[in-house]
């Protein structure tokens, strides 16, 4: 879907990187190794996004770091478009009903960092989760979004220790108390 609207693969990768998880930040050379693209092409796209006000930049040492401008009026729309592109909204809709007591759902792994590798890692936080029902629904949702889904279950008290040694850009809260974030 997104590829039909935006023909530049580099632009799509940058949107995923910075607008899926607003805590993601990176510099040009790091993006070059992550995307496997040319520095010049990535630089041009970064400059376009920055001049449009979609990205902010900050010099740290000799590196210019880029990060999404979350106060830009289009940020929420772009974020929601990416959530729908990946299919996270469909996954959550399929899984939440009749699963048990669910408190939060997080996106972790590469997708949380804005890297589309075809594998979606999700963390469910809840009590008395029906595991066989969850497995069945996750398999159905994976077929729907045409991606493999891997998940972990945590009780409410277990989630803080799990995230304590992770950076903010390593996870993304996507659902809490009945609504998508």
Features:
181 residues, alpha+beta, Arc Repressor Mutant, subunit A, 2 domains
Short description:
By secondary structure, the chain is of the alpha+beta class.
List the helices and strands and how they pair.
Blueprint: H1 2-5, H2 9-19, E1 25-27, H3 28-35, H4 39-51, E2 55-60, E3 63-68, H5 75-86, H6 88-96, E4 101-108, E5 119-127, H7 131-145, E6 148-154, H8 159-163, E7 171-176, E8 179-180
Parallel strand pairs: 5-6
Antiparallel strand pairs: 1-3, 2-3, 4-5, 4-7, 7-8
Helix pairs in contact: 3-4, 6-7
Descriptive report:
This protein is an alpha+beta fold and 181 residues long. The chain has 2 domains: 67 residues, Winged helix-like DNA-binding domain superfamily/Winged helix DNA-binding domain (Arc Repressor Mutant, subunit A, Orthogonal Bundle), CATH 1.10.10; 94 residues, Beta Polymerase, domain 2 (2-Layer Sandwich), CATH 3.30.460.10. 43% of the residues lie in helices and 26% in strands. The chain has 8 helices and 8 strands, in the order ααβααββααββαβαββ. The strands form 2 sheets. The protein has a 5-stranded mixed β-sheet with strand order 6-5-4-7-8, covered by helices on one side. α6 packs antiparallel against α7. The longest helix is centred in the C-terminal third of the chain and has 15 residues. It is elongated and about 50 Å long. The mean pLDDT is 83.
